[in-house]
């Protein structure tokens, strides 16, 4: 099993772990063979990484991958909060949402 | 300008089907104290398309039933008439806006994803705020942005201009609407709610979700929807025309004595509820369904 960025996926690869969106909803089930349509949909839905079957590193995320995931979450939040970030309440909310999304990503 | 826009909206809305007679009949039946679940089931099952979708939803994880529900009467007995009635309303709205959208830059799948998530989040927040009818709250959240679909369908040229302003100038959808139309989707949605005779709390939720302090009938429900909209956008679920997180209304924040710790504590529950509500997305794309037939309640 190996972990690939969505941009590295190829048609024919088999999904090794269920792919969910940011809210945890299933986008692609385990065992599904990817095709171009599915890969394009995963890109559109902002899925960052997918586990596929094959040789590669097993187990949990590397520290670099965890860092990259956090950076991506932060970047998305910066974009979404850009009009309200000067407001202290909204700044505080952004931090809480960041903690929640990082926790959820790790589960 | 505003009068001309409103006239076009009202003319367009007049062309939309009224909500199904089955909903009106079922609502009337509820007011009769001697009515049985079987009677209600018999009325609803007359519209097979609606009944089969309602049955699919009552059996979804969102309602958490331990056993399979196979008839509308069973659904009424197990879940209560209120849930079934709100499901009929939700299904009917999806059907009314099931036209084929070709608007560039507007993804209706992601629009419904946002709306459904907002419905689920409104339901969770409503429970915490003590709103008397959390099921109605779900429908309120689901329909809060319905005015945008009215604009997309009946004022498409202006709708495209609004989307362009959002993307090119980076302004929120509501600001772009005011610039192009002189009015916003809450006002447009309210016209539809009136045309459909939706209950006052739902009409208020649609009209005031950006300005909840103006609500008069059900302030807590409208506030729940406002907060749900903020949180769902902050979590990046779906897309309702722009991806800007709106500012929380300080009057309701202080009035409801909220704090960030409390909101933080709701996020996990909202995430779980949003996950369970994804079955509603099958109403938008009938990829897996279509062949189901509701069991008759005779």
How would you describe what is shown here?
- The complex is a heterodimer of chains A (107) and B (298).
- Chain A has helices spanning 36-44, 63-80, 88-106, and strands at residues 2-5, 19-20, 26-28, 49-52.
- In chain A, a hairpin with a 5-residue loop joins β2 (19-20) and β3 (26-28).
- Chain A has 107 residues and is an alpha+beta fold.
- Chain A folds into 2 domains: 2-52, Molybdopterin biosynthesis moea protein, domain 2, CATH 3.90.105; 63-106, no CATH class.
- In chain A, α2 runs antiparallel to α3 (88-106).
- Helices cover 43% and strands 12% of the residues of chain A.
- Chain B is an all-alpha fold and 298 residues long.
- Chain B has a single domain, classed as Hypothetical protein af1432.
- In chain B, 65% of the residues lie in helices and 0% in strands.
- Chain B contains 17 helices and no strands.
- The A-B interface holds A 21-26, 46, 76-77, 79-84, 87, 89-90, 92-94, 96-97, 99-101, 104 and B 117, 170, 172, 230-231, 233-237, 243-248, 250, 253, 260, 263-264, 267-268, 271-272, 274-275, 278.
